[in-house]
Each structure stands twice: as structure tokens, then as C-alpha cells.
């Protein structure tokens, strides 16, 4: 098995648990071509519909259930993947907590896959990405709070402050409540691919 070299400063999850391994995009491509891997994409359905690695199965982190993940075997291991690698590592930790002896994650996610000039699949008429939905919603709330604060009553400025605090919290914790809420909206769930 070819495993990508670890970063000089591995993530906190990797420091705590050496059973979490990362593989590079070229190794994953080789394994996919040989039919030697099960690829699980833990991004939300809208992101998956927009663009995905061919052969990936969508199991969003927001509804991730380790009991539903196909069993990993030495002949056909499960590899987790997301956009940049953060969510797949969180899903991997859930699998490890569920008793898996080892979990593999695509280092750098689909962005590393695309940087290696490897093919992706897209769905026509897919909803816009979750990140863009968050940007539109947060921007609209800040603009609304500012306009209402300027023209109706200054108390409306609290809305803009609340959204700003939420964005700071999301940046610090790498968990966006607005993204989790939007991921549960009907247009982002159950995409027919």
C-alpha cells in the first residue's frame, strides 16, 4: 500500500491516532482504475452533485453513520474524501471510534485530485455549492441588518453583528452552523444523480 508522506505538522487527529492514514490523489486514481478501493465522499449532496470523483459514493458528514459505511478489507479498503480533507478526517475519526482498525483519507480532498489534473464528474443543473449558499445567505443577512439599522431602527444592527460573530466562530472552530442548516434544506438533499 502506498501512503502519502505525512505533513511535518500532522493534524491533531493524526497525532492522537496513528490508525488514520492519508493517501495522495495519484495513488487513489491507481486504486480506482484497478477496482481496489471503495471511495466515500463525505461532502453534502449539493457539493457532490456539482462535482465529484468518478466512482465515489456520497455519504454526507451531516448525516454520517459509521454503521452504514461498507466494510473495509485489505483487498478493497475504504477511502474517505471531501473538498480539502478536513471533513473526511472527522468522518474517519467517527469510524475509528466505531471500532475500525485503520481508516484512509484522501490528502487534500477533491481539490488535490483536481490539482493533479485527474478527471471529475459533474451533474447538469446541480444546486450551487454550499459555500456559495452560505456566502449569499450571510451577505444578505448583514446587508438587511445594516439597511434596517440605518433606516428603521438601530437595534437591527444586532443582526449584522450576530452574523459576523457566527462567521468568526465558524472560522475558529471549522464548523459553520449556517452551512449545516443550509445542508438540510430540500434543494440540497436527496439529489437524483
Task: Give structural notes.
This protein has two domains: about 10-115, Oxidized Rhodanese, domain 1, CATH 3.40.250.10; about 130-190. It has helices spanning about 10-15, 25-35, 45-50, 85-95, 110-115, 130-150, 155-175, 175-185, and strands at about 20-25, 40, 55-60, 80, 105. The protein is an alpha/beta fold. Helix 6 crosses helix 8 (about 175-185). It has eight helices and five strands, in the order αβαβαββαβαααα. Helix 3 links the parallel strand 2 (about 40) and strand 3. Helices cover about 45% and strands about 10% of the residues. It has a five-stranded parallel beta sheet.
Notable characteristics:
5 strands, 193 residues, 2 domains, alpha/beta, five-stranded parallel β-sheet, 9% strand, disordered N terminus, Oxidized Rhodanese, domain 1
What can be said about the biggest beta sheet? 5 strands, parallel
Terminal CA distance? 32 Å
Series of H and E elements: HEHEHEEHEHHHH
- Report the CATH superfamily of the largest domain: Rhodanese-like domain
Examine the secondary-structure arrangement and name the CATH architecture of the largest domain: 3-Layer(aba) Sandwich
Strand order of the largest sheet: 1-5-4-2-3
Q: Helical residue percent?
A: 40-55%
Assign the CATH topology of the largest domain. Oxidized Rhodanese, domain 1
- Total helices: the number is 8
**Strand portion, in percent?**
5-15%
Basic shape: elongated
> How many strands in all?
5
Q: What is the arithmetic mean of pLDDT?
A: 87
Rg calc: 19 Å
Q: Domain count, please report it.
A: 2
Structural class: alpha/beta
Amino acid at each position: 500500500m502506498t501512503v502519502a508522506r505525512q505533513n511535518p505538522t500532522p493534524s491533531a487527529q493524526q497525532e492522537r491516532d496513528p490508525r488514520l492514514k492519508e493517501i495522495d490523489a495519484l495513488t487513489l486514481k491507481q486504486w480506482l482504475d484497478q477496482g481496489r478501493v471503495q471511495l466515500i465522499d463525505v461532502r453534502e449532496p449539493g457539493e457532490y452533485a456539482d462535482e465529484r470523483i468518478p466512482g465515489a459514493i456520497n455519504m454526507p458528514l451531516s448525516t454520517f453513520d459509521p454503521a452504514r459505511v461498507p466494510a473495509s478489507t485489505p483487498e478493497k479498503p475504504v477511502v474517505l474524501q471531501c473538498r480539502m480533507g478536513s471533513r473526511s478526517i472527522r468522518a474517519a475519526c467517527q469510524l475509528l471510534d466505531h471500532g475500525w482498525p485503520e481508516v484512509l483519507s484522501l490528502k487534500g480532498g477533491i481539490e488535490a485530485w483536481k490539482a493533479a489534473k485527474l478527471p471529475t464528474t459533474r451533474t447538469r443543473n446541480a444546486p450551487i455549492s454550499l459555500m456559495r449558499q452560505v456566502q449569499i445567505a450571510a451577505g444578505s443577512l448583514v446587508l438587511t441588518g445594516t439597511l434596517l439599522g440605518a433606516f428603521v431602527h438601530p437595534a437591527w444592527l444586532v443582526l449584522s453583528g450576530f452574523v459576523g460573530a457566527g462567521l468568526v466562530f465558524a472560522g475558529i472552530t471549522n464548523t459553520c452552523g449556517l452551512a449545516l442548516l443550509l445542508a438540510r434544506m430540500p434543494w440540497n438533499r436527496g439529489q437524483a444523480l
